[in-house]
Specification:
There is one protein chain. By secondary structure, the chain is an all-alpha fold. It has one domain: lambda repressor-like DNA-binding domains (434 Repressor (Amino-terminal Domain), Orthogonal Bundle). Helix content is about 70%, strand content about 0%. It contains five helices and no strands. Helix 1 packs across helix 5 and helix 2 crosses helix 3.
Length: about 80
């Protein structure tokens, strides 16, 4: 099974979107903060692209999310 389609990957994508929305950021605003196109954010949030561990921590830090909370979201649905 590819991990991009796993339940954990889906939970993480949803968690990232929820965190972005909770901070009142649009996909375009988030993309500007991390210096990526807004499609990058969209693909992550709909599960078309996954982040490796280093990218995940970087992404969270740039957008003001706690990466440890994201890891807990994987383990506790």
């Amino acid at each position: 099974m590819k991990t991009i389609y796993s339940p954990e990957s889906e939970r993480l994508s949803k968690w990232l979107r929820k965190q972005r929305e909770a901070r009142g950021l649009t996909m375009r605003q988030a993309a500007e903060l991390i210096n990526k196109p807004h499609s990058f954010i969209g693909k992550i949030e709909v599960g078309q692209r996954r982040l490796d561990v280093v990218e995940f921590v970087w992404y969270c830090e740039k957008l003001g999310f706690d990466p440890v909370s994201g890891i807990h979201a994987l383990k506790n649905p």
